[in-house]
Amino acid sequence: MAEKVRYYLEQTVPELDDLQRRGIFTKPEIASITRRRTDFEHRIHGRGAKLLDFLKYAEFEMNLDLLRKKRIQRLGGGGGQPDKAGTSVSTWSGQQRIFFIFDRATGKFKGDLSLWKQYISYARQQKARHLLNKIFKNVVRLHPAKPELWVLAAEHELRENANRKAARNLVLRGLKFNPSSKELADAFVKLEEDVKRAVEELEAKRKQDAEQDKHDGESDEVDHESGAEPSDDGEQETEDGDD
After folding, report:
1. Does residue 103 fall inside a structural domain?
2. Most buried one in 1, 58, 70, 133, CB count within 10 A?
């Protein structure tokens, strides 16, 4: 256990050095952060680790990351010396650590649905679309008899990935495991209605575009014909000029 704790804490050194170098946290504050993280890591690696230990750890890191953002704003946005892209090693490390805490928590407490929902909620807040793909894949595999999770996964595919086919397949898979679920049945009906509406809108747009193309073609033809023959006035002016 001690080796694991030491390893994870060593991974935070570059981030903490960066935060101190940029003047976001003071040296005493960095020492306090290290002590808190050490305590949390020992707790979650202990034999008697509880879900609450993971949740408190995640909450601590969320508050810390929020404080970091506030101080960067107060310092004028940069907070010392960011790299050329305007970011530094500490920019995303807080978010990634919180993801890692949730990942370890769901690995240990696979059956706790409220934990999975908190993980999903945080990933949504951070707009971590690719991570959400992974989370939903795992959670419906572990909890196939929970209709609400299939619905959440389908909504993610529809709204975030714009993938109606994947959303439909998820609902159908969910119905195989939960054939009497009204929630999934309603989701399927709504999804089919959305697909039908989208197809109708697409067909209407195609028809409108075709009519516009036809109109443009007729206009071009009229313009071409009107410019093909010289006017009588023009010929008369030429003759008058010759005289």
Report:
1. yes
2. 58
